[in-house]
């Protein structure tokens, strides 16, 4: 049941059997239906989510009610509005399920206590946050300096096999282009 998340922790820290049992005893699990919203902008992000199966998306909705996908979170990824979660202030982003999804999650208070009780967890989440910040910096640079075709190629490398699972309009939103233009790119590259 906990194999995927324990493997994820093992990417950055080695938990003893006792530590792993302590951490997994504090995890909560939730089944999220396709289209279900886990976080609405303006609410406080109270949980950090690990995707055990399925896919979440983090997105911003502009004043014209148009969604802009910021991040896809398939299996083995984490999802959180980090500014809202760490500051316990209203979220800027929304998080919802693109397909039926199973998540493990930790509340803010539980995670803060884990940092004290299992100090390796603080190291794990520091590395996770650093990696996430790096990902965002690369995404900003890509959006500012690369063509739509180059961004699409980067998407394919970063999210292998995901485009077979999610709607073309979601990918186009992530790339900052229209679905029609994405079809043209696929046609040229196909």
From TrEMBL:
Residues 11-123 form the Cyclic nucleotide-binding domain. It comes from the Bacteria. This is Cyclic nucleotide-binding domain-containing protein. It comes from Mucilaginibacter agri.
